[in-house]
Specification:
Number of domains: 1
Helix content: 10-25%
Distance between the termini: 25 Å
Order of helices and strands: EEEHEEEEHEE
CATH architecture: Beta Barrel
Mean pLDDT: 93
Number of helices: 2
Structural class: mainly beta
Shape: globular
Largest sheet: 7 strands, mixed
Strand content: over 45%
CATH topology: Cathepsin D, subunit A, domain 1
Radius of gyration: 14 Å
């Protein structure tokens, strides 16, 4: 399966004047948005929660979590993000895609409208 990047604007959910443009790797195998700590710090995003997760390698990790507002084209949603380790890529996962009603078209390397799964 091919991977591709999409342009997004990340916005602090409470301080809308704090935003940054970012390229996110579309990864339908990831559940949530993953942000590098540099972006989290630049936006001043709080990470009041932590959660354990299992990586594709099988390794158990604990990451901090918070909320971020995401703009894809003209649509915006507030969603959960995980603050990843230094040097990680910014990832757009399945939950955000579902929230936006989008699906990945890996052949054309773009996001397309797709009805979210309700069950």
């Amino acid at each position: 399966m091919s991977t591709f990047m999409v342009a997004a604007v990340l916005i602090h959910p409470e301080h809308r004047d704090q935003s940054v443009e970012a390229e996110l790797l579309v990864d339908t195998g990831s559940t949530y948005i993953l942000l590098p700590p540099e972006l989290v710090a630049r936006l001043g995003l709080p990470t009041p929660y932590q959660q354990r997760a299992r990586l594709a390698s099988g390794e158990l990790v604990t990451y901090r979590m918070g909320e971020v507002r995401v703009r894809l084209d003209v649509d915006e949603r507030t969603t959960v993000f995980w603050a990843g380790p230094p040097g990680c890529r910014a990832i757009l996962g399945a939950v955000a895609l579902e929230e936006f009603g989008l699906a990945a078209d890996p052949r054309e390397r773009r996001l397309v409208p797709g009805p979210p799964a309700l069950l």
